[in-house]
Amino acid sequence: MRDALKKWIPALALCLAVSSCGLLPEPAPEPTAGPSEEPTSDAEAPTAPPEGYSRADEVFSINYDPDSSMNPLIGTSRYNAGLFELLYEPLFALSADLEAVPVLCESFETADGLTYALKLREGVRFHDGSELTADDVTYTLNIARTSDKYAARLSDIASVQTTADGGVEIRLKRANMFLPSLLDVPIIKNGSADDEAPQGTGPYVMGAGVLNVFTSHRDYTSASLRRVYLKEVPEADLAEAFSERTVDLLDYDPTGTARLNIHMLHETRYYRTTQLIYLGMNGAGKVLSNPAVRRAISRLVDRDSIVARSFGGDADATLFVLSQDLAGWDTSVASGYAYSRQEFRRLAASAGLEDADLDGRLDYSGESFKLRILVNSESEAKVGAAGIVAGELINMGFDAAVEALDFDDYKKALEAGNFDLFIGEVKLRADLDLTALFTGSLNYSKTGADGYAQRINEYLAASPEDRPAAATELCVYAAEDCAVVPIAYKRGAVLTHVGVVSGAAPGQSHIFTGILGWTVDPTRD
Fold first, then answer.
1. Which residues contact 341 (CB under 8 A, 6 or more apart)?
2. 3.40.190.10, 3.90.76.10, 2.60.40.1120, 3.40.50.300: which CATH number matches 89-201?
3. How far apart are alpha carbons 33 and 50 in whole angstroms?
4. What is the C-alpha to C-alpha distance for residues 286 and 474, in angstroms, rounded to an integer?
């Protein structure tokens, strides 16, 4: 994991913005009043800073959407996601390496991955002063698992209830040893699901256009950033604002559908994601219905070249469908599935791919065919990946062409099965559950291969000791079927100006992880 690398990159600002002065020396601005304060007149003498004052109070602001819901269980604004992090806390948060880190949950026990007993941290208070109880957690999770926003993530939960000793018991429909990774749901106060802004336990309290550090929070005394202002910055203006040094933090997808050029030196903090880029194959097609043909084609997917040339290095190539970092599959089996033109030739011959009519193109069972590769035209990186795949296929004798469609037409073609190959992307749950991809709504390949559900369930239920073996079994099974050929797991990134912020360690769902421990140095602007 690269941290705080300085580089010039094109960036898509997604959610958040923190404003400060810039890198070049400029005259210090006149102090301005905060949104909840009355401005002073020119005739008034300056007053001493209040107790706990930090210079960062003048320079930090988070972009948000005041017209969208501030209820974290239903709010979908990507701008307000950062506010939810600061106002609410989950049972667990995901680290930069996608590991579950306890927040409101002090400890947990499970013997079988089906029943979990959670012990909550004591002395946690909501912003109204009331103490967090197990009833608040039980209430929140039961509301969340029926909500549009969290239903898929929590679909394995059969019941949540408060125990007699003040703990929380969660029962699952199927064993899952990764459950803590799925419990990064913001906890709200019992009975407040219909409130526009429910009470939370986060490190900041929301006021009129400002976030103030929550002085009843267990870690508030370590905060160098005691006040955060809320501002509206249109998405189209975020890159310019960052380049002009009025915005100081951007969370972005470096391989997303649109890129904004940042014309200044900055620091980049990368974090892993569960967003998988892959090559899908139409198992219902005349040629690709043969697993042997799919296996041959899979050996022409040059992951390292795609990551370097198309994704600019902002992704982690993966040989198998599960991330090796999380699943820990047996690396000794990797060589049997890696990119190899020599192995392609061997597998192609045994699959019945040959130039029967000597026209320079491969035929299947004596008949010519053409491979149509679909890709979303709105993603420059994916179009580039499709071009690299097509180039390999053409070089090895296939008649292949890329067809780039806008997203709506691309999705319709996938749903209708009107393709041979496609470049796809899926955001998996934090437990890397592959159910939707192979047996659910995202199974566009329609290979009909048996055994996915069994192997997925065995992987999720495996103990840490047994996990590598279960992961290897699932990965090899998928690699032999080749309905999906994994390419890379994307990285997310957070940009800051050089030297302004230290101590930040963003993760996929928590950009502001540990913010009370950050060091903010506006004098570096």
1. 299, 300, 396
2. 3.90.76.10
3. 13
4. 26
How far is it, in rounded angstroms, from Cα 464 to Cα 39?
A: 58
Out of 1.20.1250.20, 3.10.105.10, 3.40.50.2300, 3.40.50.1820, select the CATH number for domain 273-491. Answer: 3.10.105.10
**Contact 193/143 with Cβ under 8 angstroms?**
yes
CA–CA gap between residue 186 and residue 136 (Å, rounded): 11
End-to-end Cα spacing for the chain: 26
Which one, of 186, 169, 168, lies nearest residue 74 by Cα?
186
Identity of the residue numbered 433 = D
DSSP SS3 for 426: strand
Entry field: residues in the chain = 525
Sequence-distant (≥ 6) Cβ neighbours of residue 511 within 8 angstroms: 15, 16, 81, 82, 85, 251, 494
Mean pLDDT split into 10-residue runs, the chain, 525 residues:
37 38 32 32 39 54 86 90 93 90 96 97 96 98 96 96 98 97 97 96 93 93 87 84 79 77 85 95 94 97 96 93 91 93 96 93 94 96 97 97 97 96 96 93 84 95 95 96 96 88 90 89 64
**pTM of the full structure:** 0.86
